[in-house]
Amino acid sequence: MTGMGYIAVYDVGTTAVKAALTREDGSLLATATSEPMPLHDADGRQEQDSDDWDLAFRNATRTVFARAAQADAAFTHGIGSSAILGVIMSGQMQDVIALDEHLLPVRPAILYSDGRARAQARRLADAVGNDAFASLSGNRAEGSLPLAKLMWLAEHEPRRWSRVRHVLFDAKDYLVARLTGVPSGDTVACSTSGAMNIVTRRWDDRLVSPSGVDPALLPALHAPDERIGVVTPDAAARYSLPAGTPVYAGIGDAGTQWGRRPNGLRGCDRGSDA
């Protein structure tokens, strides 16, 4: 195995972060799952601290590297983490992650299962038109829609909102930003935001403008296989990943299962938020 590289793969879920190291040939080397992450549920609202994702990611990385060292002599002697060829993640979608100019959270993330923004969603649908909104965004205007939840934040938490400089819509994108210093979003995860045109895969002013949200807050959109940046020296020290390792956009978790399928095929997603 001398000279073989490795790929670090993660899933940032609601209850845990799962990590895997695969060899360059696609074979699995080691896996790890972090401890469960707390979920704040009050009055039907569901939030999670982004710092919990950060801690779980660090723990999962340390554990999977330790297990890889036990499983593969090539990883232990002469290669180790310096041969990580790239980092790619999937993650829970349809979240609202509000960050300041330093890419640090101004409040807990509002999760996909939180439907607090019903009134804002109704106003958005009225402004755009129900049929037009569905046609442009591929979504229904409902209380869990991230764009509507951004409207809710602006209206109900103006002090926090005034500090927001970046908004992300997937838990893994927070970790990508911490690793690279670059805010980003993949077109699969952002397809459920209510702000992206489902055909052009770009932010659409016909959707965003009626919300009152500044489009400058929205991240650059990328295909899942696009490279966002590399692990920075500060991130390398924090996360035990080698500086300079490429980090890719990754994909919202609902998109990981599809691959190539015939047109018209339907599917069912199942998961747990508790």
Structural notes for this entry:
The protein has helices spanning 50-71, 73-79, 118-128, 130-137, 146-156, 158-163, 171-180, 205-208, 233-239; strands at residues 6-12, 17-23, 28-33, 40-42, 45-48, 84-91, 97-99, 109-110, 166-168, 184-186, 196-197, 202-203, 220-222, 227-230, 246-248, 251-252. α1 (50-71) packs across α2, α3 (118-128) packs across α4 and α3 packs across α5. It has a five-stranded mixed β-sheet. A three-stranded antiparallel β-sheet has the order 4-5-8, with no helix packed on it. The protein has a two-stranded antiparallel sheet with strand order 7-9. It is built from nine helices and 16 strands. The protein has a single domain (6-254), classed as ATPase, nucleotide binding domain (Nucleotidyltransferase, domain 5).
- The geometry reads as elongated
Provide the CATH architecture.
2-Layer Sandwich
Strand-pairing-aware structural class:
alpha+beta
Question: In angstroms, what separates the terminal alpha carbons?
Answer: 41 Å
Helix-strand blueprint:
Blueprint: E1 6-12, E2 17-23, E3 28-33, E4 40-42, E5 45-48, H1 50-71, H2 73-79, E6 84-91, E7 97-99, E8 109-110, H3 118-128, H4 130-137, H5 146-156, H6 158-163, E9 166-168, H7 171-180, E10 184-186, E11 196-197, E12 202-203, H8 205-208, E13 220-222, E14 227-230, H9 233-239, E15 246-248, E16 251-252
Parallel strand pairs: 1-6, 6-16, 10-13
Antiparallel strand pairs: 1-2, 2-3, 4-5, 5-8, 7-9, 11-12, 14-15
Helix pairs in contact: 1-2, 3-4, 3-5
Protein name: Carbohydrate kinase, FGGY
Organism: Bifidobacterium mongoliense DSM 21395
Keywords: Carbohydrate metabolism, Kinase, Transferase, Xylose metabolism
